[in-house]
Specification:
Length: 184
């Protein structure tokens, strides 16, 4: 049965393309899981990744005389990177820390963000043009874009910068952010 499928040139190209898309998607996820410290999930993804890789590579190597197979392999690799990144965006693993600086002190931005469910630490800051309010907000990555939109709606001129913290320990944030649901 498999031999019949592999004898058809179009089917062969399609199989190679799909195998490589799946393989590279797993590769991307394994790398992200490794960076996030999720070792068991990364190991599982790596096992599946290698299984798919060996199967796909053996099919291509057995049919190197057909250039369309090599092209399908390369194209599948590129598409797999995009698919893997899209999957990671949807999963949105981990947290982000967002630093916000605003000169609109009368807006009480921290209070408005807290009412929406975000944990906000604030302090007074000084900028080139006067007093500012600086805030640090920790939120699950799945709420990242929603947080940006909320801030922009409340203060369109706010300066926003974000990063992914490597580790988080202690404080109100760790307990509260895990339990809290962000309000729209």
């Amino acid at each position: 049965m498999l031999q019949q499928l592999l004898s058809n040139a179009f089917t062969m190209v399609l199989i190679i393309l799909v195998i490589n898309i799946v393989y590279v998607s797993f590769s991307t996820m394994r790398l992200i899981l490794t960076m996030k410290g999720r070792r068991y999930a990364a190991a599982f993804a790596g096992t599946i990744e290698m299984l798919i890789y060996v199967i796909g590579l053996s099919i291509v190597l057995d049919n190197l005389d057909q250039v369309q197979n090599v092209i399908a392999y390369a194209l599948g690799y590129g598409i797999g990177i995009i698919v893997g990144m899209k999957i990671e965006e949807k999963l949105a693993l981990g947290y982000i820390t967002v630093n916000v600086i605003t000169k609109e002190l009368d807006l009480d931005l921290p209070r408005q963000l807290r009412e929406k469910g975000y944990g906000v630490t604030t302090w007074a800051a000084g900028g080139l043009e006067g007093d500012r309010s600086a805030m640090q907000i920790l939120t699950p990555r799945k709420y990242e874009l929603q947080l940006y939109e909320t801030i922009k709606t409340l203060d369109s001129k706010a300066f926003i910068i974000s990063y992914e913290p490597k580790s988080i320990h202690g404080g109100f944030w760790v307990k509260a952010v895990k339990k809290r649901r962000i309000k729209e």
